[in-house]
Amino acid sequence: MIDAVVVAHGQADVTSRAARSIRSAGVVVQSLTIVDTAGDPALTDLADDATLGATVLPCPDNPGYGAAADAGVDLGQAPLVLVTNADVWVHPGALDELARALEEAPDAACAGPLLLNTDGSPQDSAFAFPGLGQAVSDLLPVPARVRGSRLNGRLWSAGPARDVGYVLGAFMLIRRRAYELVGGFSSVYWMYAEEVDLCRRFWDDGWRVRYVPVAQVTHIRAATTSARDIEMLPQLYRSRARWYRRHSARPMASAAIGLMWLGLGVRARLPGPRREAYAAAQAALNLD
Question: Quick one: 102 and 205 in the same domain?
């Protein structure tokens, strides 16, 4: 039995498609909660759709992805909890495969699928925890093959199910007991890095994290945030800096944040529409 929590910020049509794909995925979904962080009347109307069987939980003040997910999780009691973005659709059998992986590994806290682009190509779905390379790879003119490699924490998408540092927060099947033992998502991450933090705490508490590529989910990459990409850049780097401070030794955290500060400073001085956003992101590194 699974409680499903869909965190949505507007986009009622996309959210409805995600919810329907969850309902038709094959596994028994005990409850389906849509957490509305935008106060969108169109999302509220989804609660009236008897074929969907969803509860809509309004959070119009937008507490952030992790806090919104926590609010939805608190409404259920099933032993497994699906936390997902609204910009996904679940392929047949995917939830069954993830649930089976957790059943076969009782010391695993969560499992994530292979995420696909809308054209069927694979997305980065499994990761090692951030090191120095990940701190600056997005800011340097490195080849795409390097940015998508282990040097940047990306783990090969194909192959058998295996342990990984963390899976992408866009779609995570989580064991409720493990979730509750570590305290759920941390509200200090308003957006970005909340799943990295959660999985780090799972590992620190003795749990494993599984990547199950036979389970497949299509993900419209950054469908909610792409329209505000420049606005969200400072939040991205603030969350990254916060993660390093909380989960790395002080020398590593200082080095990683220092490299990000230098890289963002250089990008802020180059011509282009993101100059101000890079400058704001550089300043955001020092907000904690």
Answer: yes
Amino acid at the residue 112:
G
Q: Are strands 171-175 and 108-116 parallel, antiparallel or unpaired?
A: antiparallel
Residues 6 or more apart whose Cβ sits within 8 Å of residue 29: 1, 2, 3, 4, 22, 23, 82, 95
The residue assigned the tokens 């190509």 is 121
Q: Which domain holds residue 9?
A: 2-122+157-219
Q: pLDDT band at residue 225, thresholds of 50, 70 and 90?
A: very low
The mean pLDDT of 192-212, rounded to a whole number, is 97
Has residue 12 got a pLDDT over 70?
yes
pTM of the model: 0.91
Nearest CA-CA partner of 86 in 210, 222, 230: 222
- Please tell me whether residues 180 and 256 are part of one structural domain: no
Comparing 134-143, 181-190, 214-223, which segment has the lowest mean pLDDT? Answer: 134-143
End residue of a domain, out of 174, 190, 219 = 219
